[in-house]
């Protein structure tokens, strides 16, 4: 029995990971990360070095964030309380899907994870009163290499499920346009 299922999104390198959940009278159990299975299903060697955890209120939008080489980050993201709309944007200039984005609902209920490889900008919008967001990264945080593309960039036209203006950090309010951003080759 496979305890991890991986589905491709419309951008092949971005994958939805669905763990098998074992439910019984006590509650549930699942393997939230299994290196051997994950690498087999993703088809490459992956070394995670940092785990992050954030908590945000409804309508908070964090992103679109990425780090430049030589410290770009792959991220395996999930939600353990509440729900978010999670978005990955292909910012690899040489990619056939350059400028395209994928949006997936990740929630404590659906237990889905999203694998976002290097070369993508990432953001999420909180859909519940609060959301706790956990993610593993393949490199450490380098403040000087961190970049932000504006969440509402007109070239990207991401269809955010928003009812009102999102709550943003000053850094995210000042995000760059796609056309002016430092991108990947
Ligand atoms: C990302 C990061 C931030 N920090 C600090 C810097 C700052 O004082 C505080 C909050 O940082 P930020 O405002 O950048 O947090 P946040 O907006 O949650 O940033 C995150 O957004 C999502 C969408 C991502 O994809 C992540 O990679 C990361 O960029 O935490 C670290 O110490 N280590 C880290 O790895």
Structural topology:
Elements: E1 4-8, E2 15-19, E3 22-24, E4 27-29, H1 35-42, E5 50-57, E6 61-67, E7 75-81, E8 83-90, E9 101-107, E10 113-116, E11 120-126, E12 130-137, E13 146-148, H2 170-173
Antiparallel strand pairs: 1-2, 2-10, 3-4, 5-12, 6-11, 6-13, 7-10, 7-12, 8-9, 8-11
This protein binds dtdp-4-keto-L-rhamnose.
Dtdp-4-keto-L-rhamnose binds at residues 52, 54, 62-63, 65, 75, 122-124, 141, 169, 171.
Tell me what the structure shows.
The protein is mostly beta strands and 185 residues long. It has a single domain (48-180), classed as Sandwich (Jelly Rolls), CATH 2.60.120.10. Helix content is 6%, strand content 41%. The chain is built from 2 helices and 13 strands; from the N terminus they run ββββαβββββββββα. It has helices at 35-42, 170-173; strands at 4-8, 15-19, 22-24, 27-29, 50-57, 61-67, 75-81, 83-90, 101-107, 113-116, 120-126, 130-137, 146-148. Strands 1-2-10-7-12-5 form a 6-stranded antiparallel β-sheet, with helices on one face. Strands 9-8-11-6-13 form a 5-stranded antiparallel β-sheet, with no helix packed on it. The longest helix is centred in the first third of the chain and has 8 residues, at 35-42. The radius of gyration is 16 Å and the shape is globular. It starts with a strand and ends in a 12-residue tail after the last helix. The mean pLDDT is 96. The chain binds dtdp-4-keto-L-rhamnose. Dtdp-4-keto-L-rhamnose is lined by residues 52, 54, 62-63, 65, 75, 122-124, 141, 169, 171. Dtdp-4-keto-L-rhamnose (TDO) is lined by residues 52, 54, 62-63, 65, 75, 122-124, 141, 169, 171. The active site is at residues 65, 135. Catalyzes the epimerization of the C3' and C5'positions of dTDP-6-deoxy-D-xylo-4-hexulose, forming dTDP-6-deoxy-L-lyxo-4-hexulose. Substrate binds at residues 26, 31, 50-52, 62, 75, 122, 146, 171. Keywords: Isomerase. The record marks 141 as: Participates in a stacking interaction with the thymidine ring of dTDP-4-oxo-6-deoxyglucose.
């Amino acid at each position: 029995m496979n305890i991890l299922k991986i589905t491709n999104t419309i951008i092949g390198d971005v994958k939805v990971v669905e763990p098998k959940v074992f439910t019984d009278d006590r509650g549930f159990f699942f393997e939230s990360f299994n290196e051997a299975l994950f690498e087999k299903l993703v088809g490459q060697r992956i070394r995670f070095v940092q785990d992050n955890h954030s908590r945000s209120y409804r309508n908070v939008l964090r992103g679109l964030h990425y780090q430049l080489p030589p410290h770009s980050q792959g991220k395996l993201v999930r939600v353990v309380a509440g729900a978010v709309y999670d978005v990955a944007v292909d910012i690899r200039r040489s990619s056939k899907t350059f400028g395209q984005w994928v949006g997936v609902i990740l929630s404590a209920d659906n237990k889905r994870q999203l694998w976002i490889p290097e070369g993508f900008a990432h953001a999420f919008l909180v859909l519940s009163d609060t959301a706790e967001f956990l993610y593993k990264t393949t490199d450490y945080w380098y403040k000087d290499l961190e970049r932000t593309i504006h969440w509402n960039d007109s070239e990207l036209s991401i269809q955010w499920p928003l009812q009102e203006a999102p709550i943003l950090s000053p850094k995210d309010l000042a995000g760059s346009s796609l056309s002016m951003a430092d991108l990947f080759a």
